[in-house]
């Protein structure tokens, strides 16, 4: 067969022949999706051209060298309607490929997380575990290759759970041990609290009850997270107010305690803790979370015996504020060092488990961004800071302190963007962007560079609790968005342990953050 030279469309020159001939076959054999704008002249006929297209494809494929996986990914072919990558975009593509290769082959996130979870464990603000985590964070930043590492002091709340909580339904077989845990910040029961229970779904139902049905009772807030939402964080947002304000609203009606259905879409026996609030002019009453299974069982028992009583015992206490620190590591920018990009997660965790997904994952992924830049020999144009924030769970004192200091730097340094990872170490999908529509659109222009890694879902949305105060400095805020379906199985529960994290998913998250950091550093906003 004589050699045939193809005049390929300009947008496809420079790509492996296998790719371009595949494009030709798709053009010749596939009718246009828009009849008014056919892919080839309408005078062409599809069937007679098919053998020619296939013959040309086979010829080109037989002569073409086979590219390695890294080469194929680094120079990914454009999709239909997309123009050829400009030289700087091609350089970005290569830089991103290097970071993903390094993360998947030699990533340090997983082993860093193992150390944080297994050698330190729970690290609630003000605790000895939190202080050990600060020391670990310093060492991990240095090991990652940060040019400088420092501690940023802040005062944090100090609440302790004390002895394990207990609860039971009096006189009901099978409910003599209810899985419960104190909500963070709750007052204790001062011995055993015994009272009848009244069940409600929301604050409106509570307000509608007669006074004698609430006064002297323990209120069971039993509104499940909405299962029909595809995004589990939407379900969380629709249910969490009963945990946050339940004790306030119940106490206003004369209740003596509250039990709150755990923020969990799964039916299991693990209670999930979390922060709750009090109001200065309202009596403080004990507040506990109850597992989803136990909430359903208690609800069923109440329907049969509305006068049943529950015994609750909690030994928690609030101590004076304690000193602690944010941990900050920085790689200095090569050209614009006074412009700063932050990547971060929160170092504190609740005390029931190891805080692997919430938010050990975000911490090790943020440190990994620094390591990836160093390991691949790619110095960013702008300075990159990894920040391990203290006290996200019950006060956000570290976030507020960091933002206050950043605001004082305005004029000398400028924070242009911040990325937070606080949604678990699951498979990354992309980013939410908390910014103006124009800034969101800028981030969306980078989708083609992220698409080969399946992390190109970029849309407007909430970024993260710890970086939100940085909005006052003018920084664009982004949140890493992993698949959320399993997150609330472990969120704030004893199940949030190292073994619940998948190594590959975790490492992909660090590389995804690194890719976005690189793009922002090279191009600004």
SSE order and pairing:
Elements: H1 17-29, H2 46-63, H3 69-74, H4 87-106, H5 109-120, H6 128-144, E1 148-160, E2 166-169, E3 180-182, E4 192-200, H7 203-208, E5 218-221, H8 232-239, H9 241-252, E6 257-261, E7 287-290, H10 292-304, E8 309-313, E9 317-331, E10 336-346, H11 356-375, E11 382-389, H12 397-409, E12 414-420, E13 428-434, H13 437-444, H14 447-450, E14 457-460, E15 476-482, H15 487-490, H16 503-523
Parallel strand pairs: 4-5, 5-6, 6-7, 10-11, 10-12, 12-15, 13-14
Antiparallel strand pairs: 1-9, 2-8, 3-7, 4-8, 9-11, 13-15
Tell me what you see in this structure.
The protein is of the alpha/beta class and 525 residues long. The chain contains 16 helices and 15 strands. The strands form two sheets. The chain has an eight-stranded mixed β-sheet, with helices on both faces. The chain has a seven-stranded mixed β-sheet with strand order 2-8-4-5-6-7-3. Helix 4 runs antiparallel to helix 16 (503-523). Residues 1-83 have low confidence and may be disordered.
Please provide the count of β strands.
15
Shape: elongated
The amount of beta strand, in percent, is 15-25%
Poorly predicted regions are 1-83
| Biggest sheet record | 8 strands, mixed
Summary keywords:
seven-stranded mixed β-sheet; eight-stranded mixed β-sheet; alpha/beta; disordered N terminus; 525 residues; 16 helices; 15 strands
């Amino acid at each position: 067969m004589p050699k045939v030279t193809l005049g390929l469309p300009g947008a496809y020159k420079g790509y492996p022949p296998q790719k371009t001939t595949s494009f030709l076959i798709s053009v010749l054999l596939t009718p246009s999706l828009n009849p008014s704008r056919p892919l080839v002249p309408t005078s062409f006929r599809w069937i007679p051209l098919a053998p020619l297209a296939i013959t040309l494809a086979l010829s080109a494929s037989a002569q073409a060298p086979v590219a390695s996986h890294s080469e194929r990914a680094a120079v990914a072919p454009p999709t239909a309607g997309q123009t050829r990558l400009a030289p700087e975009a091609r350089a970005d593509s290569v830089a991103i490929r290097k970071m993903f290769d390094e993360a998947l082959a030699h990533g340090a996130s997983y082993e860093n997380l193992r150390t944080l979870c297994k050698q330190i464990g729970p690290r609630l603000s003000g605790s000895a575990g939190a202080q050990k985590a600060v020391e670990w964070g310093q060492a991990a930043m240095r090991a990652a290759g940060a040019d400088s590492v420092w501690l940023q002091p802040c005062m944090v709340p100090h609440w302790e759970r004390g002895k394990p909580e207990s609860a039971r339904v009096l006189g009901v077989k099978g409910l003599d041990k209810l899985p419960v845990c104190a909500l963070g910040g709750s007052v204790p029961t001062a011995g055993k609290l015994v009272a009848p229970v009244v069940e409600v779904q929301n604050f409106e139902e509570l307000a509608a009850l007669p006074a004698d049905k609430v006064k002297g009772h323990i209120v069971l807030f039993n509104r499940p997270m909405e299962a029909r939402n595809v995004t589990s964080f939407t379900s969380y947002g629709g249910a969490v107010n009963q945990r946050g304000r339940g004790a306030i609203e119940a106490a206003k009606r004369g209740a003596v305690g509250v039990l709150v259905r755990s923020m969990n879409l799964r039916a299991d026996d693990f209670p999930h803790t979390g922060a709750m609030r009090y109001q200065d002019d309202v009596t403080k009453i004990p507040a506990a979370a109850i597992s989803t299974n136990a909430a359903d069982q208690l609800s069923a028992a109440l329907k049969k015996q509305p006068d049943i009583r529950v015994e609750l015992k909690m030994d928690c206490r609030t101590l004076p504020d304690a000193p602690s620190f944010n941990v900050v590591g920085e790689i200095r920018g090569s050209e614009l060092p006074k412009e700063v990009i932050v990547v971060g997660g929160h170092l504190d965790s609740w005390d029931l488990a190891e805080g692997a997904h919430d938010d050990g994952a975000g911490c090790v992924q943020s440190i990994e961004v620094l390591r990836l830049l160093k390991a691949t020999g790619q110095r960013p144009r702008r300075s990159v800071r990894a920040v391990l924030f203290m006290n996200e769970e019950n006060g956000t004192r570290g976030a507020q302190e960091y933002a206050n200091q950043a605001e004082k730097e305005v004029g000398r340094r400028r924070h242009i963007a911040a990325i937070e990872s606080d949604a678990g170490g699951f498979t990354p999908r992309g980013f939410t962007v908390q910014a103006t529509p124009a800034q969101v659109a800028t981030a969306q222009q980078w989708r083609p560079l992220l698409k080969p890694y399946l992390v190109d879902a970029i849309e407007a949305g909430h970024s993260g609790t710890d970086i939100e105060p940085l909005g006052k400095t003018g920084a664009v805020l982004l949140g890493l968005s992993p698949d959320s379906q399993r997150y609330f199985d472990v969120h704030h529960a004893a199940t949030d342990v190292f073994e619940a994290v998948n190594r590959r998913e975790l490492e992909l998250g660090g590389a995804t953050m690194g890719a976005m950091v690189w793009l922002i550093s090279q191009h600004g906003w």
